[in-house]
Amino acid sequence: MSNSVSKTSNNKPIYADKELQEELFTLNLGPTHPATHGVFQNVLQVDGERIVSGVSTIGYIHRAFEKIAERRAYYQITTLTDRLNYCSAPINNMGWHMTVEKLLDIELPKRVQYMRVIVMELSRIADHIICNGILGVDTGTFAGFIPMMIKREFIYEIFEEICGARLTTNIGRIGGFERDFNGVAFAKIRQFVKEFPAVLKEFEALLERNRIFIERTAGVAAVDAETALNYSWSGPILRATGIDYDVRANEPYSSYEEFDFEIPVGTNGDVYDRFLVRNHEMWQSLRIIEQALAKIEKEPKGIFHADVPDFYLPPKEQVYNNMEALIYHFKIVMGEIDAPKKELYHCVEGANGELGFYLISDGGRSPYRLHFRRPSFINYQMYAPMSSGMLLSDAIINMSSLNIIAGELDA
Amino acid sequence: MAKLSNERVVECLNKRFEGRFSQLEEAYGLLTIETNKEDILDVLELLKTDEELQFIYLTDITAVHYPELPKEFAVVYHLHSLVNNIRIRIKVFLEGTYPAIPTATVLWKGANWMERETYDFYGIQFVGHPDLRRILNMDDMEAFPMRKEHPLEDPNRVDKKDYFFGR
Predict the structure, then answer these.
(1) Where's the NADH:ubiquinone oxidoreductase 30kDa subunit domain (chain B) (predicted)?
(2) What DSSP designation does B165 have?
(3) Tally of domains in chain A
């Protein structure tokens, strides 16, 4: 069968006899296929090894977060955002905190903003490590993946030091952080900044000019900028097509405008370019973390939250000894404090693209409507159409390079 | 190039749609306009194709349910002009139990899943959509779960009544 498909042109198969084979094979890729790294199903019509058409079915881990959020107090929604993109949960947490702070008109001290930048860039690195590492694994090499994964574990250790959790972090609070970074946390961040470049350099040396890797990835699933914009792509995969759209630069939040960093862009929008863009972004993230560490040095020590008693929990010792603190504690925990009546859209640059929060408050204790603009959901819809004509093995690495996270896909 | 202002966007829209849209608010600098379902496609097309505005990027489509309003459903579009770095929010209020609105998939292919999601949760019919099926929920589900008539918790529960909490 497969020898009747000889060549491809623009990802469309050219059949030897100019006619479609009458019998196609239906292949269920997923829902729990080890190569898909998540719970998605694609029902593919394949002719030999070549995909003729496909239909994506999603929603296997849909948990109705938007509905649940309509009943919860604002501070309780942070735990829902953890479970969107669980590879970089802190970015989601921070995005949500910033949305609520925008709603409440809270201005954060500079030191807290820099601390947030550090946490967000660390989780961006963690997310890109998993994507590029897995891309290496899917193309056949475990060698690069393991040392990178060790560094990713180290990032999780930093998170553990900051908030006590590793994967679903629930890091930070509305108005700042729950506690200051301790000395160990700062020491570990510095150690990471010092040690990671060597590992990343080795990883790049292993793959970037590796002929097998290039032949496997270059030209695969190439997407031009116009199509990518038409499909509302965002994040590294959009930048790989040559569009320099990055929320951190376009609409700076959390003092990103003070940092000096570059936005890497690709030219072809293929799997290889996405790999390069993510690698370069890790270097830029390291740069940002270094600058943030230097900036924190200059700020007064010990400030880790804004002065918002209505929404930021008082210290526990005061709750037991001070009546006002007890009242605030009770009101916050029971979610008794109403938010102003407003409507807003806030977005942050997630590891996969523009992560947006569309929030409508009717003046009550919980949102009237909360909609997550989830980059994975919007990026993934092109997957089935762009797969037609591709080899099955190319479609697998295409999925790896899109970095679709099932939690973010289904919300 | 001077930054495009919200006033200029309204001016451009006024050239063709004078009186057929209204400006709702400008909270946080995000211009919000309301139009009707007859004009929405033309408004979106003008915003996308106008050489000065260039709202070429469809950020999001979603809906909101207001059971107490005569027009119960609002379909909300967020567009982004990457060149001018400015956003706009467009709302269309719809009436009826199963309201219909023209699809935006003719302008953006990316609107496909966004509209499917909106249909899935609110039951809004996007006329002309190539594949309007449920996306996150099961195909044989009958309700549209994000509508406000579906409470999140069992309404017969007595231990969580609001008066226990002074509300």
Answers:
(1) 34-154
(2) G
(3) 2
